[in-house]
Amino acid sequence: MRIASRATLFFALFTLSAFSVAEIKPAISYTTAGIWDSSFNQAVYEEGSFVYAFKMGKGPVFNHEPKGTEGTALYRADLARLAREGYDPIVAVGFAYEDAVRDIASYYTSTRFTLIDAVVDLPNVQSVKFAEHEGSFLVGALAGLKTESNVVGFVGGMNIPLIHRFACGYAQGVKLTNPSATILGRFVGDSYLAWSNPRRGAELTVEQYQYGADIVFAAAGGSSVGVYKTAQHYDATDTDFPTRYAIAVDSNQNSKFENSILTSMLKNVGRAAIESFEDAANGTWKPGLKIMDLRAEGVDWALDIFNEGKIPLNVVREIDQIKANIAKGSLQIGDYDTEESCPVTILWEGDVNTSANGVQRTAQLERVFSRGTIPIEFDELSEVSQ
């Protein structure tokens, strides 16, 4: 009788363990910039979908790339189709999905949605927000230590508070390590098209280099490729500061663009997707707001074999100490998201009449292109080699 009871108990425990992981049918819906945007979408795919499906061996993930004009109507239709086809949970990549998720999640109440970079308060929606200002602060601190010209730049995608959050965190980091540095800032545009205009990203980078910047941080989605390509091809050999760098965003781009990436500000959006899928499978998925900050490893800076030669050990140690201070709360960073202003000065368009080193605003940008000193085929900028 005792043996039978033990056998029954063992079978019950084994059964409970074996069936504690539920079958799920996960999907990710990207923005119209496409998976290979060298930014946000690519980070979700490479560090989320690919890792979950292949490196972790957890099963297939459906990766949906919308085709058409970006906007709520397109995203609403795509999310509805995914929900009808039984995908669950569905990860919606980016704030542009906010209204679409609100509408579709209200109708498909049994489908779980994870929305990245925006907040929708519904019982079947998990909203994931990142502390972009913390990660940007780290790369800004590095830029402040590495600049030789004492001028650094920022190129943002769409002129919205989220990207101001990147810019403001970056500027504060620069000023911590280099109080005398000047920060230049520009936005690609005011519409969704700003995320997929690498030519404009390149033009703005050339402009900032002409005004003396030797490091430019990009937070511009697919337009960031133009920043990276400009750093790769810019000819500054006849200037006082011949080295030009870009700082990448979202995913680790250190190995690309021929040694022109100083570092990458990591926004671990792939981790958010993996955790959504794992929690759904384990029965621990929860709706509500989820904050992924530096302490939660939601943001970071990238140091690896591809950029360690550019960054002296004493600088690495200083950035790591800053990182530790932010994580434990002893270093406070102003947050544009809540304060709607930045505690340090960024010189935006209209604020800059001359550069910090006295170079007048001239037609240098046009001459740089016409001379062919940036040999980029702009029509091919969006096609990132894998």
Quick tags:
386 residues; alpha/beta; Rossmann fold; 2 domains; six-stranded parallel beta sheet; 12 helices; disordered C terminus
Describe what this molecule looks like in 3D.
- There is one protein chain.
- This protein is an alpha/beta fold.
- It has helices spanning 2-18, 40-55, 72-84, 98-107, 132-146, 161-177, 198-210, 224-233, 269-282, 313-328, 336-339, 364-371; strands at 27-29, 62-64, 90-93, 113-116, 125-130, 151-158, 182-189, 215-219, 245-250, 261-267, 288-292, 299-301.
- It has two domains: 12-130 and 270-292, Response regulator (Rossmann fold); 132-267 and 312-380, Rossmann fold (3-Layer(aba) Sandwich), CATH 3.40.50.2300.
- The protein starts with a helix and ends in a 15-residue tail after the last helix.
- The relative contact order is 0.15.
- Mean pLDDT is 86; it is low at 1-20 and 354-386.
How would you write the strand order of the largest sheet?
A: 2-1-3-4-5-11
Main beta sheet? 6 strands, parallel
User: What does the radius of gyration come to?
Assistant: 23 Å
Could you give me the name of the CATH homologous superfamily of the largest domain?
A: Response regulator
* CATH topology type of the largest domain: Rossmann fold
How many angstroms does the end-to-end distance come to? Answer: 64 Å
Report the CATH C-level class of the largest domain: Alpha Beta
Overall domain count: 2
Averaging pLDDT over every residue, what do you get?
A: 86
The number of helical elements comes to 12
The count of strands amounts to 12
The outline comes out as: globular
Helix content, binned percent: 25-40%
